[in-house]
Specification:
The complex is a heterodimer. Chain A is an alpha/beta fold. Chain A has a domain at about 15-120 and about 210-225: Peroxisomal Thiolase, Chain A, domain 1 (3-Layer(aba) Sandwich), CATH 3.40.47. In chain A, about 35% of the residues lie in helices and about 20% in strands. Chain A is built from 14 helices and eleven strands. In chain A, a hairpin with a 3-residue loop joins strand 10 (about 360-365) and strand 11. In chain A, helix 1 crosses helix 2. Chain A starts with 12 loop residues before the first strand and ends in a 7-residue tail after the last strand. By secondary structure, chain B is mainly β. Chain B folds into two domains: about 10-55, no CATH class; about 55-145, OB fold (Dihydrolipoamide Acetyltransferase, E2P) (Beta Barrel), CATH 2.40.50. In chain B, the strands form two sheets. Chain B has a five-stranded mixed beta barrel with strand order 4-5-6-8-7. A three-stranded antiparallel β-sheet of chain B has the order 2-1-3. Chain B is globular. Chain B starts with 12 loop residues before the first helix and ends in a 13-residue tail after the last strand. The chains are: A alpha/beta, B mainly beta. The interface of A and B includes residues 131 and 195 of A.
């Protein structure tokens, strides 16, 4: 199925998903959440723990839950284990694709677990990590995301009502997701009446913090054929770094997201209209605004009017974050976006199922320094 | 302001030492001449490790700003609401800093600002104040 242009197309399948309840779950460590989710993912995949030969453990935002810590509880000495500093699951999935295609392992468990809420993790620490930022009070991700949004509004005339369609829309989706933590209806009037948290951002524009675990099982297409679930194939992957990280527009507007976008469209030969359901990791709604534009779902600077037209809402032509995203469903550093993409592609998304979903895309970023995207499909030939 | 000793970040110490004397200094690479901020051990343009600290004009333009209505730490509680600006210096680099809020001169993208130097309990600070409008529109300029 693969091609020279895109050697990964159809070569790896996701066959299992599992997660814990998401919310306030005191008394459990990040590793325990990760392993609870792992056991659920293995059961979903129809595998026993000894049916895997690889483990890629993603560390929590608190830095816990590496391969050694998770491995102790899983009790397996495997041919390939690895840890990853970055969340969002895209980076974990990409590492799994590389490990499988290189032959290091054939069936890999991906884990994430966090207790950032119960553990009272300090999201208010200076993002730039030096005393210049601390003295200025530029703390929390909302600070830098707010700088980017203010600039976007200035350059393109984006309005609060347009931008608010992200928070309002994700709440609409969350209402049909039993796993979502925030399900109370949020009208545009409610949204606009919210006080600013870090102006121009309101509370509903910023992720909640929740505890929980998520896990996936990834394997070869050959093995997937013998397992119970409809396989979801990896059609293409791309990443791009912005690690220079100066305090400048490039750091905040993140134009390097466009480099990841160009790479994935070029490799897969696909275009934005080929995507049935779209997922964008959203610690703040600013991420969705930026990635809708950079990945070409609308033009640069046109995110506001595009959102106002309602494409991303239930019933729209570009369903976005159909689980409610990090704004309404749960934090999980973006991992649940991929879980929801799989559910939609398997046809297991209940009342929020989008008809005839065959191809999904997940775009994410590690803070202000790294972009990643994956395209998934139930059709093994997509992207080849 | 959070009282952080400049010594906590040795790389930035020359910046704060100069701020005590009311001067704005920025690292300049001796290999390629680029000004850089924040301070780094080496130049990201030419990888030279040699740098000096050069005085720059304490003036610039607001590239963007945010207003904090929530305090994310105990020390910030008595400061909200407060405004943080990203300023492009006339000499090139961008700096993040606290804006001196003034009802008559609200922050605006494109607005001209001047650095203000102060020292509280031995800890220096650099803040930004909207410049007096003498040459053109200060309130809502496009940048």
């Amino acid at each position: 199925m693969s091609s020279q242009r895109n050697p990964v197309a159809g070569r790896v399948a996701i066959v299992g998903l599992g997660h814990t309840q998401q919310g306030t779950l005191p008394g459990r460590s990040p590793e325990e959440h990760a392993v609870d989710a792992a056991l659920a993912a293995l059961a979903d995949a129809g595998l026993r723990p000894d049916g895997i030969d690889g483990l890629i453990a993603c560390k929590s935002v608190q830095g816990q839950g590496n391969d050694v810590a998770v491995g102790q509880l899983l009790g397996l000495n495997l041919p390939y284990v690895q840890s990853l500093d970055y969340g969002t699951c895209n980076f974990s999935l990409h590492l799994a694709v590389m490990a499988i295609m290189s032959g290091l392992a054939s069936t890999i468990l991906l884990t994430y677990g966090a207790n950032a809420r119960s553990g009272k993790f300090d999201f208010g620490k200076p993002v730039y990590g030096n005393n210049m930022a601390e003295r200025a009070g530029l703390v929390h991700i909302a600070g830098r995301a707010g700088l980017a949004l203010q600039r976007h509004k200035h350059l393109y005339g984006t309005t609060d009502e347009q931008f608010g369609m992200l928070a309002v829309g994700q709440r609409q989706w969350a209402q049909s997701n039993p796993n979502a933590i925030f399900r109370k209806p949020l009208t545009m009037a409610d949204y606009l009446a919210e006080p600013f948290m870090v102006e121009p951002l309101r509370r509903s524009d910023v992720t909640m913090i929740s505890d929980g675990g998520v896990a996936l099982v990834v394997t070869t297409p050959e093995r997937a054929r013998d397992l119970p679930n409809k396989p979801v194939y990896v059609s293409g992957i791309a990443e791009h770094a912005g690690v220079r990280g100066e305090h400048n527009p490039e750091n905040l507007m993140r134009p390097w997201l466009r480099d990841s976008a160009r790479a994935i469209w070029a490799r897969t030969g696909l275009k934005p209209t080929d995507i049935d359901v779209l997922y964008i990791q959203d610690p703040t709604a600013v991420w969705s605004l930026q990635m809708l534009e950079y990945y070409g779902f609308c033009g640069l600077g046109e995110g506001g009017p595009f959102l106002a037209e309602g494409h991303t809402l239930p019933g729209g032509g570009l369903p976005l974050n159909t689980h409610g995203g990090q704004l309404s469903e749960s934090y999980t550093w973006g991992w649940m976006h991929l879980v929801e993409a799989l559910r939609q592609l398997r046809g297991q998304a209940g009342d929020r199922q989008v008809d005839a979903s065959q191809t999904a895309m997940y775009c994410s970023s590690h803070g202000f320094v790294k972009a990643a995207a994956s395209i998934l499909s139930t059709d093994q030939s997509v992207g080849a | 302001m959070t009282a952080v000793s400049p010594a906590a970040d040795p790389l930035a110490a020359p910046f704060w030492d100069a701020a005590r004397r009311g001067r704005l200094v920025i690292q300049r690479c001796q290999g390629c001449g680029e000004l850089r901020w924040p301070p780094l051990a080496g130049c990201p343009e030419c990888r030279s490790r040699d740098a000096t600290w050069d005085e720059v004009r304490p003036e610039g333009t607001i590239w963007s700003f945010v207003v904090y209505h929530r305090a994310f730490s105990a020390e910030l509680k008595d400061q909200i609401p407060y405004t943080v600006v990203m300023v492009q210096l006339d000499d090139g680099p961008y700096l993040v800093g606290r804006f001196d809020d003034d009802e008559d001169r609200p922050p605006a993208i494109g607005g001209r600002v001047t650095a203000m130097f102060a020292e509280t309990d031995g800890v220096p600070s650099v803040r930004w104040r909207a410049a007096q409008t003498t040459d053109g529109d200060n309130s809502n300029g496009k940048a």
